[in-house]
Amino acid sequence: MRADVLREVGGYLAALAFIVAGWWISALVIDSPALPTPLQTVPVLGQYLPALGPDFATSAYRVAVSVALGTALAVPLALVCSRSDRIDALFAPVLYLLYPIPKVVVLPILLVLLGLADAPKIALVSLTVFFQVLVAVRDAVRSLPEDALVSIRVLGAGRLDEYRHVVVPATLPAVFTSLRISAGTAIAVLFFAEAIAGSTGLGYFIMQSWGMVNYPRMFAGIIALAALGVVLYALFDVAERRLLRWKWQVG
């Protein structure tokens, strides 16, 4: 276990070194104030850490609530649709029409309806996560081999037993995969919403720095936003390892 942790930490450190090296080389080659070097950015990051803290907490709260809300709504609906041909026949056309639409286009509507506080940003990110998780889980359940369900029915299992012992365990890996994919999208959408409408959050901090032509400060905000994504991704990873021990043991 300790060797696994050390290997994972080593992987993160190697990846970080690779990214910093690429950033540094790019900054030296481009030689523009818009792309400061890590050496110019790190002191600014330390200087603005107290100011970044509240914005980091605000963005983390918004994305955490949004992911939880979008997932909580999407998973039950995906399970119902995938196990009922009649409901799926009604719902699938709606899904196919709405899923490709970029959800950010509804931000102006949400701002009019919900104001400028947290609600429109959480609603927008929740909507994005909802569709991504819904599609992934629905497809995962529909791909379950019918033999697995027939086997448990032969043993006298009812519909609830099918969900408990076959459908839900087989679907959880797809849920975590969709959550990891959604994490990056959620943070990107949140940045967009905070940059356009708001006076708090990392998106606002970054765009405010850009408006001040303070590029090292802007990059400090970008690093904080990237850190938020890494934390979210790592939390999903830990939760998956704890809930799906059988998957890692088999692997």
TrEMBL record:
Keyword rRNA-binding: no
Domain ABC transmembrane type-1: 56-236
InterPro entries: MetI-like, MetI-like_sf
BP terms from Gene Ontology: transmembrane transport
SUPFAM superfamilies (UniProt xref): MetI-like
Alphabetical list of Pfam families matching this protein: BPD_transp_1 (PF00528)
Transmembrane portions of the chain: 12-30, 60-82, 94-116, 186-206, 218-236
Keywords: Cell membrane, Membrane, Transmembrane, Transmembrane helix, Transport
Tagged with keyword Transport: yes
GO CC annotation terms, alphabetical: plasma membrane
Membrane topology type: Multi-pass membrane protein
Compartments where located: Cell membrane
Family statement: Belongs to the binding-protein-dependent transport system permease family.
Protein name: ABC transporter permease
